[in-house]
Structures are given as structure tokens and as C-alpha cells.
Amino acid sequence: MADRVWVRQFLKDNGYGDNDIGYDGSGPSGRVTLQGRTFDYATPDSDGMVRGTYDSMNKALNNFRQQGLQNNFNQTSDQIRQAAQAAARQFKAPEPFKYDQNSDPAYQAALNTARANITQQQADTNARLRAGGQGKSSYSETVANQIGAKEMARVSDTVLPQLINQAYQRYQDSANRDLALQQANYGAEQDRIANLAKSYAQQFGQYQQQFDNDRAIGRDAAADKSANWQAYLQSAGLTGNLGSGPKVDWSLLGGNDGARTLQGQEFDASQQNALFNRALQEAGLTGTYNGSPTMQQRAQDFSQSAENRRIGLQAQGQSQSAANAKNSNDLAWARFNADKDPNSLDNQYKQAQIDSLKGKSGKVDYQKNPGYSEDLTFIYDNPKTAVTEIQKNVQSLIAEYGQDGYNALLKEAQRVQRAAEKK
Hints:
Blueprint: E1 4-6, H1 7-13, E2 21-24, E3 31-34, E4 37-41, E5 51-53, H2 54-85, H3 105-131, H4 138-239, E6 241-243, E7 256-260, H5 262-286, E8 288-289, E9 292-293, H6 295-319, H7 328-336, H8 345-359, H9 370-381, H10 386-392, H11 394-422
Antiparallel strand pairs: 1-5, 2-3, 3-4, 6-7, 8-9
Helix pairs in contact: 2-4, 3-4, 6-8, 6-11, 7-8, 8-11, 9-11, 10-11
């Protein structure tokens, strides 16, 4: 059994603090937590400590880190997606410049100052006129009006334009500050997206690196399995037996004691083929297989029997009288239509008709012939080849059983062959 390690100590050895590690026993099975997320499911031992094998802890830690990278990666991807789908920032133009002198405190102050100046200057002028012996007169009123008009003209022509320029400068400064603020916000937004993209690339690199590390660990484990497997194959190849197999790495091969490898099975099959070929060779030499005649031997015996009967009947036909003149026309017709090839099936059939006409003057009762029963037995024993054998021996069969007997024998062979083909 593999050594078990304390989970908390294992995680501390891998850089995590006690505050990062927790345990939740509220569920059906205990849950070890790491930084608030599930690390692994485990039940404490009798001493209250949670343990696991070193390999299982390593696997759980790799999965935890991989899942963390995946979560960060997905979160960053969602933020980038939301930023890309957001409406483009629109820069806001400033309101058109407007100046209302009646609501400008500076203008009102200038206007009050001008009025005070008019009053003071008019009083000073009147005092000088009275000191010179002139009282209130049309002249004094003219002078007073000139003083008032001059002062108000100064306010309108000098002070008011200055106030308007000052107001426009304040408007321009405010517009510039607003534009600068909008530009700063836009730049911050672009920096955030750039940082997200940079973070996305970094997280993807970390994710890929973790994936490559896990794959390398998997390759190492696979290499160990492969080495065990090759050693096992070498052993199986030398013995031809599967044996029990390395159950730790290849559990599916366990419990195969006594089973043969493919190489062992091929060797066994070659031995069986050698025995079978030897039996076939013996059958070819003796005509028997396992004590019974071969199909080839049966066909050969049938052909030989039919040939023997044909020769015997031909000898009998040659000794019969040529008094069967009533069949001479049919005999001449059959010879006239004979094919040039005397060995063709058609000419054998016609020759058998000729021999029948030459040798018999009456109808033959083929069913009383003992050979007919033997030929039927051959048909039933050889349903697939009987038709061919009967057609090959047409001449001797017609000579022995007559035309009707041959036709009946051929018809029965064809029926048996059709029945065999349907099975």
C-alpha cells in the first residue's frame, strides 16, 4: 500500500499557509478547502487528520492550480469581451459660449463703480462751479450729463469687452479641463483594456505551462507503464503465455493465467494446420478420411461404376439382332445431328439415345434395376456434385436405365441440389 501523507503538511510544503487551508465536514463526505475553494474530498482518519497518497495529493494540487488558472483566464476573457462589446466612448463637446452681463457680478460691480464715479464727479464739478460764482444752470447740467455719458461709455467700451474676454477665457479653460478629463478617462480605459490583454496573455502562458507540466508528468508515467509493458511482452513472447500481467499498470491484463498470446495461438494453429494437411495428404493417397471415403473418392467410384455398367450393356447391345429396323430412321436422324465433338455432353446424350435404339426395342423398367437405388443413394450423399456427375455419365446411364430412367435420376439430383442450396 502506498504511503499516506498529511494533507495540511503537504500543502504547506507547497507554499500555502495555515490560513489558506480549511476543512468542511458538513457534507456527506469531508471537503478540504484551499483559499476558499475545494481542494479535495477526504474523510479524516481516526486521529482527526486528513491524509492521502502522495500521488493523489499531487494530482489534486495540479487540478486545483489548473482550475484556478482556468477561472482567472475565463474571468479575464469575460472582461475583455464586455469591454469589446461596450459602446465606443463619445467625447462631449462644450456648450456654446454665452455671456449675460446682467448676471455677471464683475459687470455689476463695474457698473456700480461707474455710477459712484459719476455721482462723485458731478458733485465735484458743481462745487467748482459754485466756487466760481456759478450756480445750477443749464451749463452745469450739460457738464453733469457729459460726465455721466463719459463714464458709462467707458464701462460699455472698455470694461464690458474686458469682462467678456475674461468670461470667454474662463469658458475656454473650463472646456479644456473637461476635454483633458475626458481624454484622461479614455486613456485610463485603454490602459485597462491593454492590461487585461496583457494579463490574458500571461494567464494563458501560465495555463499552457501548467498544461505542459501535467503532460510531461503524464508522459513520464506513460513511459514507466510502457517500460513495464515491454518487459511483460518480452516475457509473454518467450513463454507464449499471457500469465497474470502487470496488474498495477495494466489491470485489464490481470487473471490471464493459462491464456495464450497471439504468437502462441498462431503456433498452436500452425500445429493444427500441419496435422490437417497431413490428413489431407493421406486422404489423397488412400481415398479415405477418418475411415470414410472422401467426396472425390465417392465421385470416382460412382463414375467407375457407371462406366462398368455402360461397358457391360454395350457388350450386350452389340450382340442383339439388327432386327430393330423400325428404329432405323430415328438412328439415322440422331447420327445426322451429332456434333463433331464426340465427347461433348450433347453428343454423349445423343450417343446414349443411339445405343438405346440399337440395344432395346421396348420400354425399360429402370426402378427394378438395383443400380438405380445405388445411384439415388449417391445423389443423397452428394447433393452439390451429383448433377454434374450424372451429366458427365449421361451415355452409360441412358444405356442402363433408358431415357426415362436417366431423366428421373437427373430430375431427382436437381431437386436435392436446390434443397441443399436453401439450407
